[in-house]
Amino acid sequence: MDFINERENEAEVTRAIEWWKGGGIPTIMWHWGAPLLQGVAI
Questions:
Q1: Looking at the domain assignment, is residue 1 inside a domain?
Q2: Number of separate domains in the chain
Q3: Is 12 a domain residue?
Q4: Could you give the CA distance from residue 9 to residue 1 in angstroms, rounded to a whole number?
Q5: How far apart are CA 18 and CA 37, in angstroms?
Q6: Residues 6 and 18: beta-carbon distance below 8 Å
Q7: CA distances from 36 to 2, 24, 27, 29 (A)
Q8: 34 CB burial (10 A radius; 0-12, 13-18, 19+)
Q9: CA separation for the pair 3, 32 (Å, rounded)
C-alpha cells in the first residue's frame, strides 16, 4: 500500500480491505521522499 499520491488513497484503502477479506494481512506504512541537496537526493 502506498499513500504518497493523495488522489489514489481511496483506491489503496479499497485494495487493503479486499486483501483482508481474501485472507491477507495488509500493511500500510509511512515513508517520505528524501530531500534534495544541491539537486541530488540524499
A1: no
A2: 1
A3: yes
A4: 9
A5: 40
A6: no
A7: 21, 36, 28, 22
A8: exposed
A9: 10
Q: Binning pLDDT at 50, 70 and 90, where does residue 40 land?
A: low
Q: Greatest CA separation found in the chain? A: 46
33 conformational bin, left if phi > 0, alpha if psi -120 to 50, beta if neither: beta
Q: Which domain holds residue 25?
A: 6-41
16, 26 Cβ separation under 8 angstroms? yes
- The mean per-residue pLDDT over the stretch 25-39 comes to 76
pLDDT tens per residue across span 2-14: 677 778 888 888 9
- The residue behind cell 493523495 is 6
The three grid cell numbers given for residue 30, joined into one nine-digit string? 509511512
Please check whether residue 2 is in contact with residue 32, taking contact to mean a CB–CB distance below 8 angstroms: no
